[in-house]
Amino acid sequence: EKGNYRHFMQKEIFEQPTVVAQTLSSYIRQVSQSVTLPQMDFDLGGINRITIVACGTSYYAGMVAKYWIETFARIPVDIDVASEFRYRDPVLEPGGLSLFISQSGETADTLAALRHCKAEGQTIAVVVNVPTSTMAREADLLLPTYAGPEIGVASTKAFTCQLSVLAALAARLAVLRGRMDRDEEAQVVTHLVEAPARLNAALDHDDEIAQMAHLIAPARDVLYLGRGPDFPLALEGALKLKEISYIHAEGYASGEMKHGPIALIDEAVPVIVLAPSGPLFEKTVSNMQEVRARGGKVVLISDAEGIAEAGEGCIATIEMPRVHPLIAPIVYAVPVQLLAYHVACAKGTDVDQPRNLAKSVTVE
Ligand code: F6R
């Protein structure tokens, strides 16, 4: 039931601190400050290549995981949307792990890709939210998310729970490969344990984002920009907005703007920039300046430091807590979800049952 919330989507957005904590509790041992995975009967440390396959929001979680696994564990990762993967005759090397991410565990294209990889002799791991699902049953390694039932068609809490599991997986792979020592692992655990509190801090901006939504609701097109592991968040922000508010939105890697999409920029196109402060921040700021020089209206989502440095001249800013790169995408999911939600409310669309969409896509 919805309780005091207007929509399931809103309820599910606000459940995230609880369900992320619930999910992380089975992947973290607080006493030993270590990351742990369920039992498996294959050698995870011996995996030399990972192939990630998923659809929609789950695919964006996979894109974030690619950044994390390659950065922390130095294992090469391929990623595809399931509908493309199945038909392109992918090269699957012996000793590879295929990783499927799905809230429902039933998505037809993802399931077909899983069966293909299994037939090719790959080891199969799945991150799913429904432990009784077909994908869960057919996997060699089940990595459950504990988001609870997700009713809103637009995925929210399943996404942040997927990211939590994938962060733990990336850290565990890094440990097994000798790329992360005990101290670094303990630090990662500390940051992950703090994630629910940071999610709460992000949720505190709900009213402010509801006000801001009136600036976005009249737009015909909206762009989202991000770099590194926050690039998939830009894609996710755009997907959420188009799904429930029917506003055309696109996510781009910040640096890719000048290769085409900048032609779209004028006073009528809001640009949402996701940019935690850090080594890539300066580069994103110069991309923002390119947008502003063409009359574009920028909404900057960053931390206090980033906003102090680059907030001036933006039509709005949303201040996120300062976080470790391993949890930034988890925390930055909240403002993009809330923005899409409030814009949809401002437009009066059916938030929980958007037109043309189904919760589980069990046909090709
Ligand atoms: C987006 C959304 C869809 C799903 C996609 C995959 O809000 O809900 O894009 O993420 O259909 O579904 P699962 O994760 O169940 O395989």
Question: Major β-sheet, in short?
Answer: 5 strands, parallel
Helix count, DSSP H or I runs of 4 or more residues: 13
Structural class: alpha/beta
Bound molecules: fructose -6-phosphate
Order of helices and strands: HHEEEHEHEHEHEHHHEHEEHEHEH
Low-confidence stretches: none
Please report the total strand number as a whole number: 12
Mean pLDDT: 95
Helix content: 40-55%
For the record, give the distance between the C-alpha atoms at the N and C termini, rounded to a whole number: 31 Å
Instruction: Please indicate the percent range of residues in DSSP E strands (runs of 2 or more).
Output: 15-25%
**Principal-axis shape:** globular
Rg measurement, Å = 20 Å
Strand order of the largest sheet: 4-3-5-6-7
